[in-house]
Amino acid sequence: MIELDALSKRYGDFDAVRGLTLRVAPGEVYALLGANGAGKTTALRCLATLLKPTGGTARIGGFDVRTQPLEVRRRLGFLAASMGLYARLTARELLRYFARLQEVPPGQVEGRVDEVVERFGIAPFADRLCGRLSTGQRQRVSVARAVVHDPPALVLDEPTLGLDVLSGEAIYAFVAAARERGRAVLFSTHQMDEVELLADRVGIIAAGRMVEEGTTAEIVARSGEPSLARAFLRIAREAA
Amino acid sequence: MMRWSAAWTVLRKELRETLRDRRTMVMMVVVPTLLYPAILVFMEQLALFGQRQLTAEPAAVAVAGAEPPLVAFLARDSAIRVLPADSATPAAVRDGAAEAAVVLSPARDPAAPREVRVLFDATSDRSRRAQEVARDRLDAWGDTLLAQRLRGAGLPESVARPLAVADSSVATAEQAGGYALGRFLPLILVMMTLLGAFYPAIDLAAGEKERGTLETLLTAPVPAREIVAGKFAAVALIGLAAASVNLLSMLLTFQSGVFRFAQAAGIRFALPWHSALLVLLALVPLSILFAAVFLGIAVRSQSFKEAQNALTPAQLASTLPVIVVTLPGIDFTPALAMVPVVGVAMFFRELMTGSPALLPSVLAIAATAAYAALALGFAARAFGREEVLFGGGSGRAPGGGWGERLRAWRTGGRGVPLPAEALVFIAVLALLYFHLGARLQAEWGERGLLVSQWGLLGLAAVAFATLGPYDARKTLALRPPAPRALLAAVLIALGGIPLGWLIGWVQVRLFAPDLQGLQALEQLLRATDAQRAMWLLFLAALTPAVCEELVFRGVLLQSLGRELRPWRAIALSAAVFGAFHLSFESALRFLPTLWIGLLMATVVWHSRSIFASMVMHFTNNALVVLMLWSPRLRGLALDGEDPRWAVVLAGAAALAAGLWLLPRRADAAGPAEGAPAAVPAPAWAGPQPNPGDA
After folding, report:
1. In this complex, which of B212, B219, B386 lies closest to A78 when CB atoms are compared?
2. Model ipTM?
3. Measured distance CA(B634)–CA(B647) in Å, rounded
4. A73 vs B220: CB contact, 8 Å cut-off?
5. What are phi and psi of A20, to 5 degrees?
6. Which one, A12, A230, B177, B591, has the greatest CB density within 10 A?
7. A170 CB near a chain B CB, below 8 Å?
8. What would the pLDDT profile of B133-151 be if each residue is shown by its tens digit?
9. Could you tell me the pTM of the whole model?
């Protein structure tokens, strides 16, 4: 469902992503690990059609991000690290707005909005302006916004960044549910515990390259370290 | 294919958000409907209060040299308090001891007029008022004396007034009101349309980027142009609404009859409904223009603050020229109608006065609509570009203090300068040339010009290219031209120059400008002997051919060429070259200079040799010097002030031959980023030159 094949992104003389290859199948959760500046966000932005790859390909549902960006976006739920909520719209208005932009048929917009409001526990604050929501509430609205059109692929850039444990739990539950519903989920994070909890496979990137890939157990075993956190530290240091 | 439903969705959302924004609503509704009328009424009251204060007490006027009857006449006047003669001095008036002083010369010859001087301080309102009162009473006293003398001579008073002149305006009170409205309301309407669009444009573009919502929005399956269309429509509607509310509020305020000055002057403010509708109609393209320009600039900024900074010059550039509508003697000509913003403001003025001419009115609306379409393209292009969204992306732009930036610049070797670096360099040169160069030329004359050219342009360009982290040979295009390229350059120059004369001639025909500036320049360049001609060839032809070429076809063109498509780099460098030659004396030099700049840049781009354009530049300027020196040579090229059509046609042929002969550059497609598939053939394959470039 989600495919990166030798993806590269170059800014002038700086290589942000170098030949990155990975695949996420339907019903699979893939965690992308990397230090700050490793190229995670750049790779995810390429998948979201926000950046044009300078080499290789990125596809979602078989559609190329460069040549078929609209098709890609129709099949993608993208959550940026910045959340991206409109402060002067209520949560419900925002969900309605994106449902329309995501081409949900007019007759189904309210139904879809009600569904995600229910699923993410937004109802108590659905009619409050987004600018007055707490961080946890905002993140729930952001995730609801990303999936309001029920996409088969989800790309989440640090979805639990800045959240407390309870709000983080809601995101974990959502990712687990998405896997059960057969969605392909690719997320970036710095939280090792959520990787261990959620990810079927893990990719570690450093300086734009994939330096390790496998299940959590495989990566830990290959590194000879006792935990994923220690394994990541070792791999990241060796790659630096 | 545009899907209007997506644009409509974006528009509705943007309007909803904007209407919830207190700041925008205050600007759009509260300020015009409450604040402006209140300010206007308050200002009038303040003016009346000031007037009352001025007239509350009699003017203190010192009188010297007057006979008792005149002093008594003045003293009887309640508006005057007569001060003794010792206060009738400039020092007393300056110190405020007397508000004005009347000094009469001794009466000698009764047949001759007697000199009466009224001293006052032009910087003091009280003194000016005292002067007016004194002057008025002295005139009355003069009339009294005249009447006495006429009676003494047995003549009727009408002998001294063979003509009884009285003014009578045929304008109705409404027309007079329209005239007054037309002098200031257009400026307010333009400003309000602009301000109405200003903050929404920033908020909907840079603000959205700053808040991270644009990134989310652009992952929806909606093409950038549809998002732009929705946002742009929202900004334009808000600007239009703001201007309409202002118009309505102003008209209601003026028509309310609260203004005493209008009553006193016999003015009635009224705008016929059909004129008001036309004003609203003209506000539509104006709103579109501002919305598109502001969105296009704002979306290229990374934050609200950055957008404010970027938009402020555009705001000033849009409003300051509109002051033209308040000036007397400015007619609504077709040429003025096509000036952005000014044209439509003039149209407003004419509508309010009640007599808009059809052709300029149509031109003003059509030109504004055309500019708006161009600006819309400018805005739309930015939305889909990742470097605009993420500010270049690499995140490796030098930050920190100026020292750090300078070090980063010095160590970042890059072949030729970045366009921004070159433009900053040119801007600094222009400032130096304007302030220091002008002073040098005023002080030292021709030697000052020589120092300015070599010191402020030529050497500066060489220093910039060699001291910066650049390859000086590439930056200055220091490469010998191929013989064929050189031949092509000469042909293009010789062919293009007569067409430049044609451009100048057409400008003169169209705009009938004041040619005094150009004539003065011609006088300076007119040689009287061979020695002087040689000096002028060195000063006005060779020197700029070397110095200006190093700057404009060297540093500027080469740097623009690294990131822009060739035709854009050529056009932009020529426009900057033309602007550099604008002067207070005459704007007529811009187009001919632009034209020769286009030709020279084209030749340098393809030949990669600055020497080719130096030859062209020298040829152009030398021809001016030689033609001014030799009337015979001038007669060959020009028929009086008109171009000889045979010469122009021959020039066109030579230009075409030169362009055909010019070797094409292998990488003519331009830089890697966003390069076109092939080099565009110069669309201006008909040439012209530049008599004013010398």
Report:
1. B219
2. 0.89
3. 12
4. yes
5. -80, 130
6. B177
7. no
8. 999 999 999 988 888 888 9
9. 0.69
